[in-house]
Amino acid sequence: MPPNSIAHVWTGGMNTMASYTSRGIQAIYSSCWPNAGAASERLWSDVSQTQDANAAWPRFHEHRCRMLSRGYQVQVPNAPDFCPDYWDPPSFF
């Protein structure tokens, strides 16, 4: 295949997560997201940007803040963490 063709640069991967709580979909959003997000960052970002965790962290942090602003209750991937927009999560319990 010629270099830089779609088939040449295509990368695939899979990440399997399981949760044994009764919280349902919220368990996936809150606890499984950081692990699956790390795998996604590694698969879909440029290789040169995923060799150093300090270089990848700002993108990962920004994505978490976007998810929070859209109402997903996701945990912090690496505490402490702070998003510039205040978010007051709804109580489901």
TrEMBL record:
Look up the record and report any one GO term of the cellular component aspect.
Answer: membrane
Record-level Gene Ontology MF annotations: beta-N-acetylhexosaminidase activity
**Taxonomic superkingdom:** Eukaryota
Signal peptide positions on this chain: none
Tell me which species this is from.
Acrobeloides nanus
An annotated GO BP: carbohydrate metabolic process
The record's listing under InterPro entries reads: Beta_hexosaminidase_sua/sub, GH
Q: What is this protein called?
A: Beta-N-acetylhexosaminidase
